[in-house]
Amino acid sequence: MSILVTGGAGYIGSHTVLELQNAGYDVVVADNLSNSSRTSLERVRDITGKEITFYEADILDRDALRNIFAKEKITACIHFAGLKSVGESVAKPLEYYQNNIAGTLVLVDEMKRQGIKNIIFSSSATIYGDPAFVPITEECPKGICTNPYGWTKSMLEQILIDMQTADPEWNVIILRYFNPVGAHESGMIGEDPNGLPNNLMPFISQVAVGKLPELSVFGDDYDTPDGTGVRDYIHVVDLADGHVKALKKVSENVGLKIYNLGTGTGYSVLEMVKNFESVTGVKVPYAIKARRPGDIAACYANADKAKAELSWEAKFGIKEMCADAWNWQSKNPNGYGS
Ligand code: NAD
Ligand code: WQD
């Protein structure tokens, strides 16, 4: 009996594969390596000492999925596979809708044909748009997304909800991640963005390691304590653990469940810089720039529901997030290419 992890070679996927193996699960990964490399999984294997069954496969490829389902005894799927760059999605909306939405439709259709009706889906706090209130509970209404990437997540949530309503044999757990950061404590796996990082933490790390000259802080005139944007950063290992907890839940015939995975605490951009500097002892030069289009002032979770129902809560704080991001970056200045 194995768990299928789509997108398992990626940032969150590789950390989740590691935690699944540590929890005793057999793992099968399907990834087309469009935004990752095999090295991440080789390193997971080196850490856990356990083999991972890997298929270089696109979730849009029915035959490839059928081959996996024919060969492996899959009981549930954790579905990470997708394109995730906000800016790229604005330039290439059709590619994002095709890959993320059509890919998921093919995946769940093939799962259904096999009678495998347990799925955990990677959603995002981005579906709340500019949130109606903070801290954000799961009851907060979904909002207007500012980019096609966000819409793929919002639409996929609705598709999975409709699917589960029509066929209650499905168990669907939707996990809404806040801002994943950090890396496994070994420094052997971590986030390896292509080109210029879009997200704050990898940008800070690359400035610290000397690959980039300075951080641009996008706006200091938001309605927040220091004027810079506030987010709920969550350690990727905590996030991975959330999936292990959700997997236990999905096998209990839960029907449909939606959980926020965040810490409940918001940090501003400047607080992130200060924490990173104090934890690592490395200076991060920055300059205040204009607001980034589509950004919101503040976004942080109320994660009480995951605590109550999944017995999950974040264990790691901002210090560990910064220390582990730096450990990974300094040991692998060029990511998996180093
Ligand atoms: P990632 O890019 O590191 O991982 C995604 C993986 O999916 C990659 O390994 C990529 O090669 C693979 N993939 C993409 N399209 C595929 C396809 N058609 N078939 C097979 N494999 C495919 O991204 P991540 O940060 O690990 O994110 C994982 C999931 O979590 C994504 O769905 C993402 O949208 C979601 N998410 C990420 C964040 C974040 O900030 N990192 C926040 C919220 C939600
Ligand atoms: C955080 C804060 C920026 C970079 C994005 C996606 C979201 C989700 C997570 C997938 C903001 C500021 C950033 C920089 C900066 N991904 N910033 N300089 O925008 O909250 O969320 O990633 O689902 O969908 O939108 O994360 O890390 O890009 O930004 O000042 O170079 O850092 O303005 O306030 P964001 P982020």
What about the largest sheet? 7 strands, parallel
Total strands:
14
Helix content: 40-55%
* Small-molecule binders: nicotinamide-adenine-dinucleotide, UDP-4-deoxy-4-formamido-beta-L-arabinopyranose
* pLDDT < 50 stretches: none
What is the global morphology?
globular
DSSP helix count?
11
Percent of residues in beta strands: 15-25%
In terms of structural class, how would the helical and strand content be classed?
Answer: alpha/beta
Strand order in the largest sheet: 3-2-1-4-5-6-11
- Classify the oligomer: single chain
Compute the CA-based radius of gyration. 19 Å
Write the layout of secondary structure elements.
Blueprint: E1 2-6, H1 11-22, E2 26-31, H2 38-48, E3 53-56, H3 62-71, E4 74-79, H4 86-91, H5 93-114, E5 118-124, H6 148-166, E6 171-177, E7 179-181, H7 200-208, E8 215-218, E9 230-231, E10 233-235, H8 236-250, E11 256-261, E12 267-268, H9 269-280, E13 286-289, E14 298-299, H10 304-310, H11 318-331
Parallel strand pairs: 1-2, 1-4, 2-3, 4-5, 5-6, 6-11, 7-10, 8-13, 9-14
Antiparallel strand pairs: 9-12
Helix pairs in contact: 1-2, 1-8, 3-5, 5-6, 7-11, 9-11
Bound molecules: nicotinamide-adenine-dinucleotide and UDP-4-deoxy-4-formamido-beta-L-arabinopyranose.
UDP-4-deoxy-4-formamido-beta-L-arabinopyranose is lined by residues 84, 86, 124, 126, 150, 179, 198-200, 203, 215-218, 229, 231, 269, 292, 295.
